[in-house]
User: Which sequence fits this backbone?
């Protein structure tokens, strides 16, 4: 390797360390300009390193989470076992798959979120201020050191707020929920939900504010805050492992169930519109699906395998 | 009578007709899927064709088996990567699922990155990915992997040097 190559590598280490300041960038610019061989070396190195990353970042814009998924795929243990590849296609054994995700507790997956639950994993914990938190499956939360301000990155939580002077706040990408008593916050892709389970709460989103009393709920996001029609205390039933549905579309039910199922549970747009009433077990998704099949005109294909699809019958 | 002129094509033809069925059977036993075995047998013969003077081979089946093992290893590695990616996908919220085209793009990138990083120790690979994929600083990576910042810098240097060797000479 020539000197320009060595220098290019050193520069790349320095500039990606996370501590580069203006003088570093100026010195880099000077190095680049000093000799065409420097530029050529830099282009060669950057070309190899950055091209695949740039492609992934474009996809990440459209579907967040891909960078994390790629990283996990690339550090997963290599298993060259014949048994896992029987049948040719990449099929997960359902039980083993869920165990792999939840039990392994990939330490790297924790990074970037202070608290993260896996598939089919609920977690209850106490915050520094004495507030109690319950996290639904596939939830990621950041905490500040005092524990009174949370960032809900994905998923769903119920907080029982300890009384204190400082307000208790849960922020999502769509707004901020502050309250006392007991509250639920769920973050979905396009909007978030807040429900006052006990006591009042305030929603601040896109220059609007709304106060909810106990038993009331509202969606917020995209510049809108919209009250939920039906009584919403049922929405916290997942804390006890139940999905309590009172006139919701099947699409929403499937979204809730897929947090508890390793693999991919899809629903056709037509089936997703069906209205659902009932109580379903979250810790036994197969049983929940069977119960749904009994009361709705649907069929489930790929039932029990990694990819299951729900369609109108 | 003119001596039979051996060209690479002719040598390959002989190799193929003598040993193709055997190789297909050998691969089938390792794969449980005859269509895959046919594809991989084809890849193996391609490698044989581009590898060396085919007329020099004393033990054609041993030669083919060596090539086939490499082809198999790549095949399993690729399948394992795809499986790991799908598994990681499954842990995402259902409304973050990428389109089929995007999934294909990502899958190809995973395989390309794996090929690029092949040969690096696991910890170096982890550090590199945390830096380039997740944008973590060296301090953050050191905390995540429970290593010193100096070690992370050393790993990054090692990884970039590895990438340099994978890069093309500039025109």
Assistant:
């Amino acid at each position: 390797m020539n000197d320009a190559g060595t220098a290019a590598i050193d520069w790349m280490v320095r500039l990606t360390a996370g501590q580069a300041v203006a003088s570093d960038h100026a010195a880099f610019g000077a190095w680049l300009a000093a000799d065409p061989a420097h530029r050529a070396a830099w282009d060669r190195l950057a070309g190899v390193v950055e091209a695949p990353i740039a492609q992934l970042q474009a996809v990440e814009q459209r579907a967040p989470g891909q960078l994390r998924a790629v990283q996990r795929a690339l550090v997963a243990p290599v298993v060259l076992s014949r048994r896992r590849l029987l049948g040719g296609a990449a099929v997960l054994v359902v039980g083993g798959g869920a165990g792999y995700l939840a039990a392994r507790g990939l330490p790297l997956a924790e990074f970037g979120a202070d608290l993260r639950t896996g598939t089919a994993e609920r977690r209850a914990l106490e915050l520094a201020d004495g507030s109690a938190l319950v996290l639904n499956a596939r939830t990621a939360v950041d905490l500040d050191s005092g524990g009174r301000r949370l960032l809900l990155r994905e998923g769903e939580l119920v907080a029982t707020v300890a009384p204190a002077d400082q307000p208790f706040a849960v922020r999502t990408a769509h707004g901020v929920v502050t309250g006392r008593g007991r509250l639920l916050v769920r973050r979905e892709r396009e909007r978030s939900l807040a429900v006052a389970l006990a006591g009042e709460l305030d929603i601040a989103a896109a220059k609007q504010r709304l106060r909810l009393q106990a038993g009331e709920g509202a969606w917020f996001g995209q510049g809108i805050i919209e009250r939920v029609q039906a009584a919403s205390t049922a929405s916290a039933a997942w804390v006890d492992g139940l999905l309590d549905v009172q006139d919701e579309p099947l699409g929403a039910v499937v979204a809730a169930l897929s947090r508890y199922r390793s693999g991919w549970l899809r629903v056709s747009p037509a089936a997703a519109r069906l209205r659902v009433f009932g109580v379903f077990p979250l810790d036994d998704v197969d049983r929940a699906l069977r119960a749904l099949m009994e009361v709705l005109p649907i069929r489930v294909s790929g039932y029990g395998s990694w990819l299951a699809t729900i369609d109108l019958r | 009578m003119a001596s039979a002129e051996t060209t690479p094509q002719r040598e390959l033809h002989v190799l193929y007709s003598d040993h193709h069925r055997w190789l297909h059977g050998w691969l089938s036993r390792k794969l449980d899927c005859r269509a895959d075995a046919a594809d991989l047998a084809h890849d193996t013969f391609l490698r044989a064709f581009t590898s060396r003077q085919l007329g020099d081979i004393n033990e054609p089946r041993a030669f083919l088996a060596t090539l086939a093992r490499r082809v198999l290893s790549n095949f399993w590695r690729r399948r394992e990567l795809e499986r790991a990616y799908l598994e990681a996908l499954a842990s995402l919220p259902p409304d973050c699922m990428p389109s089929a085209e995007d999934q294909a793009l990502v899958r190809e990138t995973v395989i390309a990155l794996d090929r690029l990083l092949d040969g690096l120790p696991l910890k170096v690979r982890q550090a590199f990915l945390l830096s380039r994929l997740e944008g973590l600083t060296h301090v953050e990576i050191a905390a995540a992997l429970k290593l010193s910042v100096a070690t992370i810098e050393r790993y990054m240097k090692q990884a970039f040097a590895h990438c340099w060797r994978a890069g093309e000479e500039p025109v």
In short: Residues 60-90 of chain B form the longest helix (31 residues). Chain B has a mean pLDDT of 83. The two ends of chain B are 50 Å apart (CA to CA). Chain B has seven helices and no strands.
